[in-house]
Amino acid sequence: MAIQWAAFPAATSQYSGDWLFALPTASCELRLDDEAVRIAIRVRLGLQLCTPNRCHCGAQVDAHGRLSFICKRAPGRTIPYHHLNELIARALPTASIPNTKELQDLCRSDGKRPDGLTLVPWQSGKPLIWDVTVVSYVALAARDKSATAEMAASNKTAKYAGLTSDYHFQPITVESLGPANESAIYFLTVLGKKIAQQTGYKRETAFLFQRLSNLVQRFNCILLHDSFVHDDCPD
């Protein structure tokens, strides 16, 4: 697990706008409330999000809400990670690929475990292990939109190098404006096609990316609101 939120400029990445094409169906996790839509649009256009205020950590939040996406004291800081991991774990069985998140004996050299494991082979006769990271744009990403996620994915791959002889490792790094690292996009595309083979719906890949994009926008909203300090009302 890793959460690496950082301030981001106005930019877009591949599939970052998929939430704009999603039918607002709550049962399919494709509905955003009005406030989440407001924030998603303003983040996408680089517009101001809020009135400057002071965060729980004591630092100043500017009008673009940048601190809210990096504050380590944010109550909902780990929520995007857990929901993204759950999205992957629930999508795999839809493609008839059972998996588990309870990994007892599968650890890398520092004792940390991947986030999930398929119980049947995924590729080249090897089961899949995956590890989720949520990142956000930094100055580097202003020049290369996928640089942040690609860097995080490379770091993850290096850390799990000791397990790749027996498992196919998939880093899944998601940025605050949408999925970016190329191997994760390829993985999700293949997974979407496998789901489509089971359900008969050709648009399963698009739906998978839309759910992921909606998830990111929803929790951008949560992180921004987590930075607001509410004064106690007087008696």
**What is the alpha-carbon Rg in Å?**
18 Å
Quickly give the structural class. Answer: alpha/beta
Task: Give the number of domains.
Answer: 1
Number of helices: 6
Q: The biggest beta sheet, please?
A: 6 strands, mixed
Structural summary, described in words:
With 235 residues, the chain is α/β, with parallel strands linked by helices. The protein has one domain. Helices cover 37% and strands 16% of the residues. The protein is built from 6 helices and 8 strands. The chain has helices spanning 34-45, 79-94, 139-143, 147-159, 182-199, 204-226; strands at 2-4, 53-54, 60-61, 99-100, 116-123, 126-135, 168-175, 178-179. The strands form 2 sheets. Strands 1, 4, 5, 6, 7 and 8 form a 6-stranded mixed beta sheet that branches. Strand 5 (116-123) and strand 6 (126-135) form a beta hairpin. Helix 1 packs across helix 6 and helix 5 packs across helix 6. The relative contact order is 0.22. Residues 1-12 and 138-143 have low confidence and may be disordered.
